[in-house]
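Here is an idea for our session: we take a single protein and study its fold together. Which protein we use is up to you, so please pick one and set it down. Once you have written the record down, we can walk along the chain together:
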Amino acid sequence: MIDTGDTAWMLAATALVIMMTPALGLFYAGLVRSKNTLNTFMMSIAAIGVATIAWAVIGYSIAFGGEGGFIGSFDYAFLKDVGFEPREGTTIPHLLFMVFQGSFCILTVALVSGAVVERIRFGPYLIFVVLWSTLVYPVMAHWVFGGGFLAEAGTLDFAGGVSVEMASGFSALAAALLIGARKDYGRQALLPHNSVFVLLGAGLLWFGWFGFNGGSGIGANDSSVLAFTNTLLTPACTVVAWFVLDLIRGGKVTAVGAATAIIVGCVAITPAAGFISPMWAMVLGLIAAVPSYLIIVWRPRTRVDETLDVLAAHGTAGIVGILFIGFFAQIGWNGVADGLVYGNPAQLWDQTLAVLVAPAYAFIATYVILRLIGAVVPLRASEREEAVGMDVVQHGEEAYVTGEGAILVDVGPRGEAELLADLNKEPDRV
């Protein structure tokens, strides 16, 4: 039967998760150069529109229709038979369950955009959102939440370590490798233009994550209370650990580092939120900081321009959270299974299986999707368009108008060298 208390909480949790996508846009927009602010934010806003439609039409059915091992059925295509009756195994309306799960898909595909901001063209990106929201996220969600083979194998994932965190992180790596580095990458400092945006976006994301993890108990119950509590504790410990790492490395605590630590902590606890005790959640927060920090420090020394470090913040921290369950899950807190520390080594293998298959599928599927799109339309902007900035080129607008504003003109082949020379002096204006 429908429980009004559970329904009320899930309505609130769903709204919190939907709010996370514009919060992500704010977080990402602060991390890029000013001439790409609007374009970066628009990628998150576009995901709300495009991914929502893809989810309602077919994505939800692929994720939660039927009981196939790899992929769901088309039973719920176009929301057929999705109404006010309770979703099987829950006490909330089926429609609400569908929207809550859809909010995860929206956020995840928006996360991937962080790998290729400042150079991907907006039209091809919209095509990518449609295909990825149909062929990648729903399939991986089915594996763990829709009765797929990982669920059958015993893998535990409370709120999306597989389909959200590892999926976005390794999809981001594939996208960055295929589209290539920005033209100035490795030649000049490409610094965040607004650290206040970054901090505010991270704070709003943490706020939304209480719905993300707390709502994944699908009701106002003990699992949601535990997940809600752990979503406070783990990121708090990650922030403190990040402060220490910053001080050891550079003698200063950075604002962007603090914001990144919030995200890493939230990501790490996502798969484990309802399966580990609060004290182990704090330990997880301390541990998760280290590998993500090291990858963020190391990555700029390579030629991989994975712009906003989605792999480090989401893919790596997601792996840490998934494996942590294998060691420290405890029936006393989750009523499901113990981990290795509590006498059940098999759980660690169940978690390792997810770490082996999820990154591989996300990487390969994303690479193929982008290859197919690139065979039809150019994926990335030209060097000239990249120099001008994606705001003006893709949207005809600017986030910050200085003086009379920027005007995009066709200078012809003779004037292009002079134009690029001017851009080196004043990169935000043409």
